[in-house]
Amino acid sequence: MPMNNHLKIRPLTPARMDDLGRVLSGSWGSGCWRIFPRMTPKQERALPGPGDASHKRRKAMAKLAKRRTAPGLLAYRDGEVVGWVSVAPRVTMRVECR
Length: 98
Known about the structure:
With 98 residues, this protein is an alpha+beta fold. The chain contains three helices and three strands; from the N terminus they run βαααββ. Strands 1-2-3 form a three-stranded antiparallel β-sheet.
C-alpha cells in the first residue's frame, strides 16, 4: 500500500494535546511539553496546582493552546501525528505563560 506523502498541518488546540504527547513520546522532550523557552526554569518551578512537573507543564501548554494564536503546529500523515513545531512571535516566547 503506497504511503500518502502529503502532510496536513494543524494548530495545537486543547483537543490535540494527546497528539502532542504522542509525537513527543520516546524523545528526551516527552515530559517537557515543549514549554521551554516560553517559561524560565523559575517560572516552571512556580507553576500552580497538583501533580508532578510534567503534568503542570502539560496544563500550561494546554492553556496556551486555548489562545487565538496557537503555540505551535502539528503535522499529520495518513491521520497519524508525525511532527511538531513550536512557533510564536519572538517577543512572546518568555512572557506567554505569565
